[in-house]
Amino acid sequence: MAAPCRHVGHSIRKNGRILFYNLEQRLGNRSFSGSSALQQQAAETQKEYTEVIVIPKKKTWSNVAVLEALASTVSRDSTAYPYQFQDDPYLSPRTGAEFKLYALSQESGSAAAKYFVNNNPKFFTKDFAEPHIPCLMPESVSLHLEEVSEEALKERISLRKVTAAVEMYDQLQQAGTAVSMETVHSLLDLVCLYCDKDPVQEGEPQQDDTEVGAEQRRRPSRGRRANDFLRLTWRENNNAERIFNLLPEKDTRCYSALIRGMAKHGAYAKAFSMYTDLLNNRLTADVHIFNALILAAPDTQDKYMGRWEVIADLLNQMNQQKLRPDLQTFNNTLRALRRCGMQAKSLTLNVLNEMKALRIAPSAATFDHILRIFHKSVSLDQNNSSMLQEVMAEVEGTSFTCRDPHDVMFFLTAMKICLDNKDLELAYKVHCLVEVGENWRLLGDSYHQSIYYSRFFSLLCMMEHLDVVMKWYKRLVPSMYYPNSQVLRDLLQALDTESRLDLLPAIWKDIKFLGHDNKPDLVGELLRLMARDQHGPEVQASFAACALDVKAVMDVKTVVEWSASSLSDITTLLLRADRSLEAWKMLQLFKSKNRVPSQKLLHAFLAVCHRDAAPEKAVEVVQLSAAFCLPSTTSLAKRVLEEFHLSEEQRAVLSELESAGETLTQQDDTN
Which among 276, 39, 564 has a CA at the least distance from the CA of 258? Predict the structure, then answer.
């Protein structure tokens, strides 16, 4: 970029000289007494321009400046698939199930590729990428140092080889080789983080510990929290404890590794016991120890008040040891308060005041914990969105950065509160905050994004005008998420509320496109709404075409059983659209599927037979009713005898059916 800049600077200097030259010529050709003053003014002007214009010698651009400039000129295409699926349009998922399969396949392929690249780096020695992308280059996963040395131990620690690192450390101890305390700290951190097990590398199959896995399979999964599984993983006298006990000198960092590992993997009582041992050795804890213990405190007490007393004691000890709490300290405190009952509401305000006094800016996880505490402490019959309103007033227009793993839960919780309280205005504020900067990244993975948009769209269907609902529907589907069957039922309900059932055929196309045409409840609701009321000829014709399309899909999907109500609705729609031939075929389908037609439907068929002057069809309707032993057989036979011109043979058949129906009715009355 230096050459263009020099060219531009030369052009500016040249044009500036021409400008001042012309100014001097014009002033010199004019004969008046103040010419010298004007010449002096022109010289000062030239000097001023020369001093202001500063041409930089070089302009530095980032490697992706052009891509960033291009990206700023475009916005999200609401009709396109999510960007991660646009590499192969043919395989782009259209349904929720296909989306899950595609995402898992993509992740599996990525893991397999990384496994091959990392284990065969000799085939990937050249890098043509510009700019250089380190994450796409092979990682060093194989051991190169085989001799017994501290450098070999560091290599195993950096490669996260837990078992190999422990074996190397034991060999160093047996050889009498001293290991630096810094390396011991790294080793303890590694062993405690992975709980004395080698982590599963990308592309490798999941290895399940025999004893732990068998115990987990024996115990029922219902009624347990996720951390109940973790309690089985920390074992007595494992390598972490063994290495720690053999250390001649133990500092705070050693205690911190063990305490955090025990708290992470469910050994809560041992973590507090280790902390007591640290105090007895006249050592001072660090903030990471207190953060881990605060989060583990609720699991050490059964009563709510006892849990808070443990947390308060830990905070007091931090103050006594003159340790400054960080954001994670307060977030863990609020997270622990969620398990402290009704008193958590008042205690939360004290925690927030303390954060404000220490000038620690809250993260999205902080607000998430606050919302969960207040949402839980207010009864369901009260409006509990007041706290969310205060939070939204506080964070309006804020662009969040992820500072806590639980930051991704804030928008989910906020939208859930809006849905529970049916507060549409507040939901719009929450979604506007999502669209600020890159806050959308805090929606989490695709699963959590789907939950967020499902809650938001369900609220729109309940509270918003249909035109606005359809705008949001076109904006969100399928570019942002794939709606589930319940959300589509909410959309059908919104169409029914606004009396816009004429849009049902278009919604059916989306139902089929999104792969929900195998949901009998959803398809049945669609047919019921179309068949409930009589509409104009044009609408009825579109309904009949939609009903035949539904029938074609249902015939292909053999796993879906036809219900009597669905058959009746399709037949009714065909009759209303004057498609008698298809309707008669549907009536025969009742018998083959062993489904009982409704009395209303049979009378509708008789009306069509009377209009078309088809007495033989009317007799078939009565015979079908008699075949199912319906109580309406008698009334149907009487109606045909009174309204139709019949032959003697037909009258005899109907008279026999009428008497049989009366006999059946009398037997039912006797029983």
Answer: 276
The DSSP secondary-structure symbol of 401 reads -
Is the CB of residue 201 less than 8 Å from the CB of residue 141? Answer: yes
Give the pLDDT band of residue 399 (cuts 50, 70, 90). very high
- Tell me the per-residue pLDDT of 501-549, one tens digit each, with 9 for 90 and over: 999 999 999 998 888 888 889 999 999 999 999 999 999 999 999 999 9
Angle at 128 between CA 127 and CA 133, to 5 degrees: 65
Residue type at 267 in one-letter notation:
A
Rounded to an integer, what distance in angstroms lies between the CA atom of residue 607 and that of residue 615?
A: 11
CA distance 157 to 166: 9
Over the stretch 107-135, which tens digit does the pLDDT of each residue have? 888 888 888 887 887 787 777 777 777 77
**Type of residue found at 401:** T
List the one residue out of 497, 525, 498 whose CA is nearest residue 511.
525
Greatest CA span in the chain, whole angstroms? 133
List Cα–Cα distances, 634 to 374, 506, 602, 621, in angstroms: 64, 42, 12, 12
Closest CA to 573 of 599, 556, 551: 551
The DSSP-derived string for 553-588 is HHHH-TTSPPPHHHHHHHHHHHHHTT-HHHHHHHHH
Sign of CA dihedral 33, 39, 45, 47: negative
The upper half-sphere exposure of residue 517, i.e. CA atoms within 13 Å in the direction of its Cβ, equals 23
Q: Find out whether the peptide bond into 4 is cis, omega within 30 degrees of 0.
A: no
pLDDT single digits (tens) 145-201: 888 899 999 999 998 889 999 999 999 999 988 899 999 999 999 999 998 888 876
What's the 3-state SS for 279-325? HHCCCCCCHHHHHHHHHHHHHHCCCHHHHHHHHHHHHHHHHHCCCCC
Q: 240 vs 114, 282, 296, 391, CA distance in Å?
A: 30, 22, 19, 43
| Identity of the residue numbered 346 | S
Q: Which residue reads 């249909």 in tokens?
A: 466
Under 8 Å CB-to-CB from 13, ≥6 apart: which residues? none
Is the distance from CB of 433 to CB of 413 less than 8 angstroms? no
The rounded distance, in Å, linking the Cα atoms of 418 and 429 is 10
CA–CA gap between residue 256 and residue 274 (Å, rounded): 9
Distance of alpha carbon 402 from the chain centroid: 16
Encode 463-498: b = buried (16+ Cβ within 10 Å), e = exposed.
Answer: bbebeebbebbeebbbebbbbbbebbbbbbebbeee
CB 72 within 8 A of CB 55: no
> Burial code of 348-373, b = ≥16 C-beta within 10 A, e = fewer?
beebeeebeeeebebbbbbbbbbbbb
C-alpha to C-alpha distance for 71 and 142, rounded to whole angstroms = 39
Rounded to an integer, what distance in angstroms lies between the CA atom of residue 622 and that of residue 639?
10
Under 8 Å between Cβ of 601 and 571? yes
* Strand residues in 394-511 grouped as ranges (E): none
Nearest to residue 602, comparing CAs of 636, 574, 634, 564?
636
Q: Which of 265, 257, 321, 251 is nearest to 295 (CA)?
A: 265
